[in-house]
């Protein structure tokens, strides 16, 4: 059974590209356009890893990540923040919610490499 990755971003083109690349690498991918939709989705679809944008409508990536970490099921689930925002714009406590940060624009091959590393997949 393939490992499941949740991609949360309001940029439909980016989600499409990331989803195609991850599926080609053997992952199952579920997607959400904002944090609120993602929270509803993970109630029934438990991901092995989450890729989250910061700037989204309804609920941003930081707020989503904070809420996710309050759920015992997701205390150790890797969260990759994928954003065009500069790291220094975030508050220190916000970094505690994510496993790693990748700035946009990003190299899709480096993203897949990081995912495999976090999920211990060859």
Provide structural commentary:
The protein has a 5-stranded parallel β-sheet with strand order 2-1-3-4-5. α2 (35-41) runs parallel beside α3 (61-69). The protein is an alpha/beta fold and 122 residues long. The mean pLDDT is 88. The two termini are 15 Å apart. It is 37% helix and 19% strand. It has helices spanning 12-24, 35-41, 61-69, 92-95, 108-119, and strands at 4-8, 28-32, 49-52, 79-83, 100-103. The protein is built from 5 helices and 5 strands, in the order βαβαβαβαβα.
Task: Give a concise summary.
The chain has 122 residues and is α/β, with parallel strands linked by helices. The chain is 37% helix and 19% strand. Strands 2-1-3-4-5 form a five-stranded parallel β-sheet.
Please name the defining characteristics of this protein.
single chain; about 120 residues; alpha/beta; five-stranded parallel β-sheet; 5 strands; about 20% strand; globular
Topology:
Blueprint: E1 4-8, H1 12-24, E2 28-32, H2 35-41, E3 49-52, H3 61-69, E4 79-83, H4 92-95, E5 100-103, H5 108-119
Helix pairs in contact: 2-3
Strand content is 15-25%
Unreliable runs, pLDDT <50, ≥5 residues? none
Number of separate helices: 5
- CA(first)-CA(last) distance: 15 Å
Mean pLDDT: 88
Helicity level, as a percent range?
Answer: 25-40%
Main sheet summary = 5 strands, parallel
